[in-house]
Every structure is written in C-alpha cells, then in structure tokens.
Design a protein that fits this description.
The chain is mainly alpha-helical. Helix content is 42%, strand content 4%. A two-stranded antiparallel sheet has the order 1-2. The chain starts with 6 loop residues before the first helix and ends in a 10-residue tail after the last helix. About 3% of the residues have low confidence.
Length: 330
C-alpha cells in the first residue's frame, strides 16, 4: 500500500520556505552623494579685474561704431550717423512730383516747422455735411475709367438681384421645375443664344408686332428685345372671369377683367411653353426643350404660331362679354 500524501502540510512547508528566503535577502537603499558645502576655510572664487567685462558680457560693437573705429585707424572721417537719411526721404526731396502724392506723415518732416502752440490738424468735431450728389461735386477723380461712374444717389434697382432684365427673370422662373434654378438659367441662356444665332425672321403683315418695333433684320442683334417683342405681341389684354350668381338662379356670367403687365406676360409665356412642349423632339440632349421654345418664339414673331389664335379667341370672348359689366347682382 503506497504512503498517503498530505497536501496541506506540504503547502505550509512551501510558505515557510518562501518567507525565510525573503528575510535573508539584503534590503535595498539609495546612497546619495555627499553634498559639498562651501566653508570659510576654502579659498573664494577669483574676482574679475576692475573695469574688465565678465563672462558673456563682451559683445560685438555696433556696425556704425565698428565703421567709426576703422575710419579712425585709416584716417578717414567717420560716418555721419545723425545726418544720415533713409532712401525714401532722399527720393522725395529730389522728386517734387512724388511729394504731392506722399502720405501726410512723410510730408510733415519736409515742411518748415509750425509756430509754437499750433498744430497741423484739428481735434474738433466737424458738423455733418450734406449727402454727396455726384462724383463731380465730391472732387473724386473719374479719369482712367473705361465707363463713366454712375450718378449718386444710386437708383433702387441698382442691386445685384436686379442684374437681369425683368422679362428674362420672369421667363426663367416660369421655366424652372422642381426648384432647379440652375437648369432654368441654362435653358434661358440656350434660348437667347438660339435667337441670336438664328436667321432674321420674316414678319407676317396680317399679324403685326407691337408698334414702334425695330426692323426684323435687327432683332437677332438683341436677343432680349427679340424675346420681349414676341411675348408682348401675343400677350392678352384681358381675361375672362366667371361670376357666379350674377344672372340669377345660380347662373354664372362671364366678366372681362383687365390684366397688369406681369400678368399679361405670364399668360403669353405659358401659352408659348405649352405649344413648345407639344412639338416633337428632334433628338436627345439637355438642350432639346430650349431649342423648341426658341423655335416657338421665332414662330410667334413670324405669325406661324397657334398662340395668336388663342389670344384672338380671348379678345373676342371679352368683347362679347363686355355687356355683362353693367349687370347688377340680383
């Protein structure tokens, strides 16, 4: 039978052996170097001679001082430090034309000294002057400009948001879909470019344009005028409004209502866009719709567009319904 092993007793023996080994190990300690103290028995540090600079005190002389010492050795005259001026002052003294354009700070040293008790500027508050009416009255130099400066005060419409013609801005907003203004501006540019590069239109005498319009051969030279003339020529003057209950028994009467300028142009542009959208496409590309609109504008000027018939129908109906203006509500 093998001997029995007692694990608890072996564990206690191992713990005692570890503790005894830790006690026999020598303790560690830091040995500091002995500090050296200065006593009266030691000799003091040597002192510097009287008048001689100490360490890190002997600096190089100034450039002007070095030049003066060299000139003294060679027998030449020293540099005139006090009377030496800057090159800018020397140039201003020689050039009379530059003195007039020099800053005030540089003019004052060249002028004779003012009497004692006076100053060249005023510290008193100046009263508010009147508004400047023009550049000529303000004394500003307008020479050297390619174009003449605008008259002051500026007009209310001289702002960056009014940089386009009103008709161009209105048509651009009507061309816009889903809030994509950049796409509408691109189409507007393509329309104007097509009107500018197209051949001059031939005006139909049966459907004349607005009185006072330029010759047809001059229209491509100004595409904005081209577009404005086409829109204003087919813009309706009136619209028909159905007034309910005016004839009695719930019957509505057709009442002609005059339109303002923007309302007339909007109706004409919507008719032109409607007719252009019904035209067949000639190919693919993002400039297809702009080309169709430009062709419809040219057709309006030449009298070939169906927009003229829609305008004539509205005017005929308004003329026949003008008798209803005197009808009172029952």
């Amino acid at each position: 039978m093998p001997p029995r092993l007692i694990f608890f007793q072996a564990r206690r023996t191992a713990i005692r052996a570890v503790r005894s080994s830790q006690q026999d190990r020598p303790s560690l300690c830091l040995r500091l170097a002995p500090q050296r103290s200065i006593t009266t028995d030691e000799k003091p540090l040597p002192e510097a001679e009287k008048g001689s600079p100490g360490p890190n005190q002997e600096q190089l002389p100034h450039v002007s001082e070095e030049a003066a010492s060299m000139n003294k050795i060679t027998g030449d005259g020293g540099p005139e430090i006090e009377e030496q001026g800057t090159p800018v002052d020397e140039v201003l003294k020689r050039d009379k034309g530059s003195q007039a354009k020099a800053p005030k700070v540089m003019k004052e040293p060249m002028q004779p000294p003012s009497p004692k008790g006076t100053r060249s500027f005023s510290t008193s508050t100046r009263p508010m002057q009147g508004a400047v009416i023009s550049f000529e009255d303000s004394g500003l130099q307008t020479t050297g400009h390619t174009f003449e400066l605008p008259a002051l005060p500026l007009a209310a419409n001289m702002h960056m948001k009014y940089r386009y013609a009103p008709i161009v801005k209105q048509v651009t907003n009507l061309l816009m879909r889903d809030g994509k203004l950049s796409v509408a501006q691109r189409n507007m540019a393509m329309i104007l470019n097509h009107l500018r590069t197209a051949s001059p239109p031939s005006v139909n005498p049966d459907r004349p344009l607005l009185p006072g319009s330029p010759p047809a051969s001059h229209l491509p030279l100004n595409p904005i005028l081209y577009l404005t003339l086409a829109i204003d020529s087919v813009a309706p003057l009136l619209r028909i409004r159905a007034q309910k209950g005016m004839a009695g028994g719930g019957v509505a009467l057709q009442m002609p209502v005059p339109l303002a300028l923007r309302q007339r142009r909007r109706q004409a542009v919507m008719w032109i866009l409607d007719s252009a959208s019904k035209k067949p496409s000639r190919g693919s590309g993002r400039g297809g719709f702009a080309q169709k609109v430009a062709e419809e504008v040219i057709a309006v000027v030449e009298g070939r567009s169906g927009v003229w018939d829609r305008r004539g129908g509205i005017h005929k109906l308004a003329v026949s319904a003008r008798a209803n203006l005197n009808v009172r509500r029952r």
